[in-house]
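dumping these here so i dont lose them again. two proteins, back to back, each one seq then structure tokens. dont judge the mess
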Amino acid sequence: MGWFEALVLGLVQGLTEFLPISSSAHLRVTAALAGWDDPGAAFTAVTQIGTELAVVLFFAKKIGRILTGWFYSLYKPEWRSNPDARLGWLIIVGTLPIGVLGLLLQDQIDSSFRDLRITATMLIVFGVILWLADTYGKNERTLDHLTVKHGLGFGFAQALALIPGVSRSGGTTSAGRLMGYQRPEAAEYSFLLALPAVFTSGLFKLKDVGGENSPEWGPTILATLVAFGVGYVVIAWLMSYIKKRSFLPFVIYRIVLGIVLFGLVFGGVLDPNAGPAGH
């Protein structure tokens, strides 16, 4: 991977990680359309560390309260009913599904799940699910209403994002809207829930950077830094946008992209398992 390629993919990662349109799908499709090799699961996982650092910076005060409350709840019973402490425990609960499935499906994540036909299908199917959830979901719950059952619901939705095209933020936000959570609340929990999973996955995949099927360290670090800067701007914009507007533009975009991707694959322009046909 060259420096320009890393710059472009870092921009794509930062722009798409927090929007409900699947960053892994966009990294995969961008590389394929440009005639580059698939950047691979390791590159995706490591560059996501950059975007999650943007989450840490944007929600720093909130995360500080959660960590403080959770730590005190370990040995001070009176803290166990504290909202921030509860949220900390429920983030742990919600992380369990992707942790277990990520280990069980590791081979598929690195291979069969990256088929562009699967990516196109997930873009369309979960675009429709997002529309249904956002249209018919009630705006009655905040994170103070979060329960273990709901935390697991968010968690299983996040685990679906192991398949490119689903979208971590799209899947978890859809689950939240179906359970009656307000848009900003569902999005905020989605971002916070991603932190343990993404940091764990990224650190686990660090060993693969510079390996036979992964980019070198230099370009990977550049892409991660770019993703951090762009990701922070996107978080700020999205949290403001969804206070007043629906996810419909993202739904339309997902469906159109999925249809175009199917056309490119079945038209022989793109090889579903690599980059351009014949590459």
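---- next one ----
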Amino acid sequence: MTRKSADGGGRSTIRDVAARAGVSAATVSRVLGGAYPVSTATRTQVLRAVRELDYVADARAKAIAGVGTPTLGFVLDDITGPSFALMAHGVEREATRLGHLCLVCSTDGDAAHELDFIETMRAQRAAAVILVGGGADTPEYRSRTARVADALAAAGSRLVLCGRPPLDPGAPVTVIEYDNEGGAYALCAHVLSQGHRRILFLGGEPEHTTAQGRERGYLAAHRARGVEADPALRLAGDFTRDSGYRSMRRALEDGLDFTAVMAATDMVAAGALTALHEAEVSVPGDVSLVGYDDIPFARDLYPPLTTVRVPYEELGRLAVRTALERGRGRGRDAPPDEHVLLGTHVVVRDSVRAVGDSSAG
């Protein structure tokens, strides 16, 4: 049954609760906010009125007033991506552990949507806003993101960048990232150590900073081994399974000469693996294949995928912990621009074989 307010509406108000309890609206706010001492008798009266009227406090009003459950904003392009989902899980679990509500926004790459959500979080005095994922490192991006960081800092909040391009020195921002280029270097070095010299690279969008870092690692590993990387073996795409499938089909149809494939993500590797299976190319018997991210299903592919382990869940946890510790004063002496780098490592499974080894596939 819907409870009626004193003015005939369908929703009870704080004034209705005050009238039922025989106290002021300010007293009701003190009881519900829990920020001020109230006598036991008064608290009992107010809570009884709340139950009888089925009153629900306006969460937005409470947030703007600075009471109620503190919040964190978490912004990403696509929540369906496995690596993003792992990071979101880490953010949510750490936020819950520390008594914060985590609000998630998936933008599909819409910058205006992202800015609208950040403004809402600023207005609600969110403890921090965490932005996730690579992007184009342009002057426009740096200027826009610096303004966001300044606005949040002025409201007592904190901008945290996870895997996003950092800002200019001195900006009030926390950067939490992993050794993206180093992971790609170690992975490609592992493939080269198995005797491969023609390694097809299925990359991401050329302007995407995460994709750029992984390609730099690929090229650096070739230089370190004194091997010339053939530009014809570097194909751009995006980080999806379908992109990997299309790029692999194109490489096969064009007759490119390669003995190994380095995919920019495990999702890209999964698509490439399907295309190779369809073409009756054995992995790793005919072609070796590696990915990047070590998302959960990488070990369940056939063959299990050699890849780079990225601590996505820990990145999410650390983003929350670092921002909140600073907000509580424990990071007060830290510079305005904090930068934390986590390591990556290669996970060797069964998708790579040494050149000339006929025991696999």
